[in-house]
């Protein structure tokens, strides 16, 4: 079996035995997906870069304990989510205070002007960003990372029924936001 056809699980088994080349292969396969996911979760490319590298260090450490109950990509996204949430909790303390924030001028366009300037895909992305975190994460994993409902449940460590409920409410809110912005029809 050559490196291109070797399964992720087989590579994790090799990593568990100390094979650095297997880590590099997994990095090449999953780096972009994990980076994009973390960048969406944190809103920071620098944080995404750091966390993505930490995910692969964690892969090296945890490979011997990988039980294969989920896909490797799902397992790595779960590690990435945990690390992103941990870092965001730590960063909250360093965020700008209310007085400083009040001094920053608001140069944003009105919702109507923004909607007129953007195409439908950009408007939808903005509406997704406005969803509560629990709904935004489910939409992000499903539509931007191609995860199944089961995989999303594994990444978020929640029941499949909860994933479906969150997806239902997220779609409903997105539909309402699109309609309010003048997009009466579904996605073309």
TrEMBL record:
The keyword Cell inner membrane does not apply. Keywords: Sigma factor, Transcription, Transcription regulation. PANTHER family: BLR3042 PROTEIN, RNA POLYMERASE ECF-TYPE SIGMA FACTO. This is Sigma-70 family RNA polymerase sigma factor. Belongs to the sigma-70 factor family. ECF subfamily. Pfam families: Sigma70_r2, Sigma70_r4_2. Transmembrane segments: none annotated. It comes from Mesorhizobium dulcispinae. InterPro entries: RNA_pol_sigma-70-like (IPR039425), RNA_pol_sigma-70_dom (IPR014284), RNA_pol_sigma70_r2 (IPR007627), RNA_pol_sigma70_r4_t2 (IPR013249), RNA_pol_sigma_r2 (IPR013325), RNA_pol_sigma_r3/r4-like (IPR013324), WH-like_DNA-bd_sf (IPR036388). Residues 123-174 form the RNA polymerase sigma factor 70 region 4 type domain. Gene3D superfamilies: 1.10.1740.10, Winged helix-like DNA-binding domain superfamily/Winged helix DNA-binding domain (1.10.10.10). Residues 26-92 form the RNA polymerase sigma-70 region domain.
């Amino acid at each position: 079996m050559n490196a291109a056809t070797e399964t992720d699980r087989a590579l994790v088994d090799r990593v568990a035995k100390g094979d650095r080349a297997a880590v590099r292969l997994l990095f090449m396969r999953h780096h972009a997906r994990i980076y994009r996911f973390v960048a969406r979760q944190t809103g920071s490319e620098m944080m995404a870069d750091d966390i993505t590298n930490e995910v692969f260090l964690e892969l090296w450490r945890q490979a011997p304990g990988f039980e294969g109950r989920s896909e490797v990509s799902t397992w790595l996204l779960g590690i990435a989510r945990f690390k992103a949430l941990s870092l965001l909790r730590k960063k909250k303390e360093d965020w700008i205070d209310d007085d400083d924030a009040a001094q920053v001028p608001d140069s944003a366009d009105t919702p109507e002007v923004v909607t007129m300037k953007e195409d439908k895909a950009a408007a939808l992305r903005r509406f997704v960003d406005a969803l509560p975190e629990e709904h935004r994460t489910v939409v992000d994993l499903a539509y931007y990372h191609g995860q199944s409902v089961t995989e999303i449940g594994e990444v978020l460590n929640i029941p499949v029924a909860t994933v479906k409920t969150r997806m239902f409410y997220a779609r409903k809110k997105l539909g309402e936001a699109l309609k309010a912005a003048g997009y009466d029809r579904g996605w073309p």
